[in-house]
Amino acid sequence: VTDGDTFYTPTVSQNGAPQTLTPSLFVDSDTFYAPTVAAGAVTLAPSLHADADTFYTATVSATYSLVPALYTDGETFFAPTVTPGAVSLTPGLVTDADTFYSATAGATYQLTPTTLVNGATFYSATVLPGAVSVLPGLVVDVDTFYAAVVAGGVIVLNPNAAALSTGGGAAALSTGGGGAALSNSGGGLTHTNKGAAA
Prior knowledge:
Layout: E1 162-167, E2 170-175, E3 180-185, E4 188-193
Antiparallel strand pairs: 1-2, 2-3, 3-4
């Protein structure tokens, strides 16, 4: 659709005051056609479509055979020959083209190792006639075990405070009050009870 409408811009001048900015009239050139109605049946089928495709007809210019040619097989099948008598089925010998070279000795080498010199000494046993003692020698033990010396009498163990004193080679245990006294002088042990009899 081609629309021929024209829109004019307003013109503003400063000659007098106030100015009227009313735009000019709009000229519309659109054309509106009145429908025409005729009595009777109306066909609304669209117009025919013009198709530009071209369909060519087949043209046969020669005759071609589509069957493949016969296959020529070059294999040869020999007919068996049967001869009466003994037949050997052993295959023929195979000729092997491998070459095995013999070893060539250019010199002589001794491969035997030298004799081992063993420096170990083995002594022979000496046997003498007569009785032999196989017991080990006696062990000399230097440990000292002291024997306890106990003197006769009664010992009272008083729970009071006790004093233990040693002087020289003797030992003395004394208790204050009515306790007992234990003294060791020399190699003997002597018990003395003071006060009440035990």
